[in-house]
Write a structure and sequence with these properties.
The longest helix is centred in the last third of the chain and has 16 residues. With about 450 residues, the chain is mostly helical. Helix content is about 75%, strand content about 0%. The protein is globular, with a radius of gyration of 30 Å. It has 25 helices and no strands. Keywords: Repeat. This is Pentatricopeptide repeat-containing protein.
Length: about 450
């Protein structure tokens, strides 16, 4: 390459100019022969590999760079830590984090922040808090993203006191909060149903000059909907519109779900109509909530209309959607259609979960089909699921009513082995079934 008149700066420019990573990577490997590549050459291609998710290829290049005697900087190591955390490989991220110290570099606030966030996302809370303390112990000032990460974790844990201690600390250290900071704390209030405090905090947010986003209003609307306070949810919707934030699918999904929980099908229909009038395309979540709303309202025709509309929109129903319909059919005693729908899940390569199995068992027991319930309970266990105590008791009682006391006795024994208490009524039912059978012989 030197003979051709290239120098490292020219070569790096060509690397940056390569539009596609594969072309740049090929150019890198072809051009590196005879040219003493610098740290920037490696950095350009390594970062390109990371952006494409080719972490193993990037790691090989890093090893090549380290083996050449050149020292990667903390920014390159941080890019690797962030990439590994992003795909959930926190162990690999920890390995690279340890290497930063081993080569004599000091992790900066970004390095610590991405590592802390990765730990929290993986459920390694103790390690995340430990890194935050280590970060401050090393004299580094946490940045906005670090504070938001910690506040988010405290809110998830329901520890609003600690979350607000960090919020106040940000103010003392002149670190400006952003809309994410406020939204996170609002969500913390809503999760604990502290809705009055959430409203006051919204006012505080506005006074601080932070403009509420769609996510801000959606958080509060969802909070009021889950608390069944639909008039307040509608007030917040009006505020959202007045603030110039158009409601989105998330907004209407919350409202439809709220009206559904309040058994207000008129409110459900109005929200759905307004959603379509605004040109919003219902999502899989929207259709599932609507299907559930009508099923809970004992309007299975409309529930199936929503289910069919979902298919026409090119959306595939998931286990949750099927569960909603099967539950409605079982409740109204339509086990023929419930059974068809249950089996159609398998045709569509969907595996019914334990909740759906328990629904079906309940429906069959209620119908008096003890054998079908018993067979389904057996199938459930064969698929590695554990029936709940209600399914065991209902099936045992149904078997006893049909004088199938041997199957009932075996089921009661299995129930006890699984750690469930059959109860005196089940033992009495078994005793009666045995006595009735013997008197008939």
């Amino acid at each position: 390459m030197v003979k051709r008149g290239f120098n490292p700066n020219t070569f790096n420019g060509l690397l940056l100019g390569a539009k596609r990573l594969k072309a740049a990577s090929r150019f890198f490997h072809d051009g590196s022969h005879g040219l003493a590549l610098d740290l920037r050459s490696f950095s350009i291609v390594i970062r390109g590999c990371i952006e494409r998710g080719e972490l193993h290829k990037a790691s090989r290049l890093l090893e090549q760079l380290e083996g050449s005697g050149r020292k990667p900087d903390v920014f390159m190591y941080t890019a690797f830590i962030h990439a590994f955390c992003k795909v959930g490989e926190v162990g690999e991220a920890e390995r690279v984090f340890g290497k930063v110290k081993d080569v004599g570099l000091l992790p900066n606030e970004v390095t610590y922040t991405v590592m802390i966030n990765g730990c929290f996302r993986k459920g390694l809370k103790a390690r995340g808090f430990e890194l935050f303390d280590e970060m401050r112990g090393n004299g580094l000032i946490p940045n906005l993203y670090a504070y938001n990460t910690l506040i988010c974790q405290y809110c998830r844990d329901g520890d609003l006191v600690s979350a607000f201690e960090l919020f106040d600390e940000m103010g003392h250290k002149d670190i400006a909060c952003n809309v994410v900071t406020y939204n996170t704390l609002l969500l913390g209030f809503c999760r604990q149903r502290k809705l009055s405090e959430a409203q006051r905090f919204l006012d505080r947010m506005k006074k601080a000059g932070i403009r509420p986003s769609a996510a801000t209003f959606n958080t509060l609307i969802d909070g009021f909907c889950k608390a069944g306070r639909m008039s307040k949810a509608k007030e917040m919707l009006a505020q959202m519109k007045a603030a110039g934030c158009p409601p989105n699918c998330v907004t209407y999904n919350s409202l439809i779900g709220g009206f559904s929980r309040c058994s207000n099908l008129v409110g459900v229909a109005e929200c759905y109509r307004e959603m379509k009038e605004r040109g919003l395309t219902p999502t899989k979540v929207t259709y599932t909530i609507l299907t559930n709303a009508f099923a809970e309202g004992n309007d299975m025709d409309k529930a199936f209309d929503m289910f069919n509309s979902m298919g026409k929109a090119g959306l595939e129903a998931d286990v949750c959607t099927y569960g909603v319909l099967i539950n409605g059919l079982c409740r109204e005693g339509n086990m023929k259609d419930a059974s068809k729908l249950f089996r159609s899940m398998l045709d569509n390569k969907l595996k019914p979960n334990d909740v759906i199995y328990n629904m079906m068992i309940y429906g069959y027991c209620r119908e008096g089909s003890s054998y079908r319930a018993w067979r389904l309970l057996k199938e459930m266990r064969e698929n590695g699921m554990v029936p709940n105590v209600a399914s065991y008791r209902q099936t045992a009682r149904a078997l006893c009513r049909d004088r199938k006391w041997e199957e009932a006795e075996a089921l009661i024994s299995e129930m006890a082995i699984s750690g469930f208490e059959p109860g005196d009524s089940i033992y009495r039912a078994l005793s009666n079934a045995m006595a009735e059978t013997s008197s008939c012989t």
